[in-house]
Specification:
Blueprint: E1 7-11, H1 15-26, E2 30-35, H2 38-44, E3 50-53, H3 59-65, E4 72-75, H4 81-93, E5 98-102, H5 106-114, E6 119-121, H6 123-136, E7 140-147, E8 150-155, E9 181-183, E10 186-188
Parallel strand pairs: 1-2, 1-4, 2-3, 4-5, 5-6
Antiparallel strand pairs: 7-8, 9-10
């Protein structure tokens, strides 16, 4: 199944915004990047579908940029609460379908939620938790949260586990289920 390409407006091209924007382009999406810092915009001008030097707090500038026509608007300037609020107001006023916003605190989160953000992200906090989990559990190579307390873990089996069968590990006693096994570059399906 091929993923449908979408259009994204990224407001704020700092480290977080520019990373999200370049990855979305790499996935084949149309991405408009907006920042008032000319250097940031120039760095991404040849990478993004469109790059615009503008103040995202300015309703007229956002109307001219057409942000209301994008599938998703990501407000990536969490350090400035006032800018976040004005950007949400402008995006909603101009008809943005979905608005994601970066927050830097729980209070910031609550305000953004009341302003109508569809999704609020805390990248530093979320990734900090991710890194702490891997540091705390050395066998955890990586993991993904699925929600409702469910996770998918990529676990590295130590030398003590070599030669043992999956059944002998008795994963059920830890309420774990295995989805597959990688040996080198080969994936082994649990049903085989």
């Amino acid at each position: 199944m091929a993923l449908q390409h979408r259009s994204f407006a990224i407001l704020g091209l700092g480290t977080f915004g520019s990373t999200v924007a370049t990855e979305l382009v790499r996935f084949g999406n149309h991405v408009l990047g907006i920042d008032r810092d000319e250097k940031r915009v120039n760095l991404l001008a040849n990478t993004l579908s469109e790059a615009l030097i503008a103040d995202a707090r300015d309703e007229a500038a956002m109307r001219e940029a057409g942000i209301g026509h994008y599938d998703v608007v990501l407000i990536a300037m969490g350090e400035d609460l006032e800018a976040s609020i004005l950007c949400i107001m402008n995006a909603r006023l101009l008809g943005a379908k979905t608005i994601w916003v970066k927050a830097i605190s729980r209070t910031h989160h609550r305000i953004l939620a009341r302003m109508g953000a569809d999704r609020i992200v805390h990248p530093e906090e979320e990734y900090g938790q991710h890194i702490a989990q891997m540091l705390h559990n050395p066998v955890v190579h990586d993991y993904v949260k699925l929600g409702n307390g469910f996770h998918v873990f990529n676990i590295v089996i130590s030398h003590r586990g070599e030669g043992k069968t999956i059944q002998s590990l008795q994963l059920e006693q830890f309420d774990l289920r295995w989805l597959g096994l990688m040996r080198g570059n080969t994936f082994i399906n649990p049903d085989n």
